[in-house]
Amino acid sequence: MRLFVSYIGFFFIICMFALVGLFYGPSDASLSELASGLIRSDDGPMEMIIWSIRIPRIILSLLTGCCLGLSGALIQLSSRSSIGDPNLFGIGGGASIFLAGSYAGIFVFNEHWIFLGSIISSLIISLILSRLIASKDLTPIKLAIMGIALGTLTVSIGTAVISFGRVFPGQVLGLVAGSFTSSNWDKIVYLLIILIPVLLITFILSKRFYPIMLGDVLSKSLGVNPIRNRNIAMSLAGILSGASVYAGGLIGFVGLVAPHLCRKILGNHPSHLILGSTILGGLLTLFSDQLARLLFAPTELPVGMASTILGAPMMMYLAWRLK
Amino acid sequence: MKIDISNLSVLFDDQIILDDISCHFPEGKFSCLVGENGSGKSTLLRTLTKDIDKFQGSITDLKSSDYSYIPQNIDDPEFLSVQEVVKLGFYQSKISDQDLNLQSHQLLKRFDIEHLESRRFSEISMGQKQRAWLAFALAQDKKVILMDEPLAAVDLQSRKNFYSILNTVSKENRTLVLVTHDLEIAMEFCEHMVHLHQGAISFEGPPKNF
Ligand SMILES: Nc1ncnc2c1ncn2[C@@H]1O[C@H](COP(=O)(O)OP(=O)(O)OP(=O)(O)O)[C@@H](O)[C@H]1O
Ligand SMILES: [Mg+2]
Asked: Which of B106, B141, B176 is the last residue of a domain?
């Protein structure tokens, strides 16, 4: 019952933010103008704003957040670290290096390949991390520190790469601090192609990921191969965070906060952890994006900044409780 | 399932830790493995569970479905509650959710920690954690149970009680190996004793001969 109410609650909050995203914005149109744009009566500017700018942005920020939330849950499940986050640990940074190269014109690909390249770059970093976690004497704290170092490294490499080309400052900011200003329906399709199968696979395998939390020695005695399952979980996390960086740049802390919030609200059951983190990731990112868009309108903040304002205190709290 | 160890040698960085040892742990008996600090007790268990995979000699090949194991040092599992840890012990058994709740509750009760079941594992006391790991190990219902000083932080009153629980468990045709420093209690409850001294066996047999 409590679970049901929580899910309904998430749904309503998401709808609320979506309505805010739909009806508030710099164009200052009246509600009735917007409403008529929504129902596609003509080809006027309102229809343009609603259907090609605001709605794709709402959906894309939601889906990107879903990817981040799920990715964070997978990392926390398989790394035994309570401060696991795809962008903090450099997984998203892998994709950002690739995208930086593409923005800087170091290589020229069409959109399909850029999307695929982002995913593969993140996948590589996530497998490196998976390798690190498997080494015997790496405590969760050591792991977190190494992950954060890796994260910082990837962002610096990305920034270095980008300075080789003539790139608009907005594009750079969008990549390293997150932005949904260039949302479109194509990106939504790309994200759905990744998110839906990964979510399904995670659901099917979730029971196997669970014993890894006990550590490698104990999960082995439960008949679970910790290394193989961790590689699978981390690969899925890598794919998701690559897709998220392609869609919205580096958005910090959503992957960290969503699973923790989920545990507080829905408890620790594997399927609720996975579904709840996905939904809450979407909710938080949608919220952060609306905050970034409207707080100082017409000037936009990077969405990663808004999410960091929410997430950094949470991380400090978690570090406080760490032993 | 009987455990046989013959001519086992383990080296760490060219240093001999276990020196050509041979011993056995009989089926259906409660065995204790004793010896001073650094004598190689943990190393022996880690070799049996393949946590250490570089060794010479031959040992009984234990598969994951054969044994449960409590290592000497276990990192607290993040996020999990006491009950969730014990429930994970039933991971390989196909029982209904209802049985799962019932049986894990019974195990927690057996080790007097049922009042802690919904507490976060990392937030209970050392001795309470050891009780929970014992419950976790017994939950797995394996033929071989290997325990590395699982009672070191348990209070003396309960310790004897747990020794007798383990003794009972070994009667269900299981092979129990307990690493311990409580010589006196071990002599009272165990049926087979192996003493390690500087990486070699200095005694093996019934505790009354020790
Ligand atoms: N990872 C390691 N690398 C190198 N040497 C090690 C390692 N682990 C243990 N040793 C050495 O192996 C020897 C045996 O260690 P082991 O942990 O098996 O002792 P133990 O009998 O379990 O001691 P205790 O009663 O303190 O638990 C010790 O001399 C120790 O220094
Ligand atoms: Mg030891």
From this structure: B141
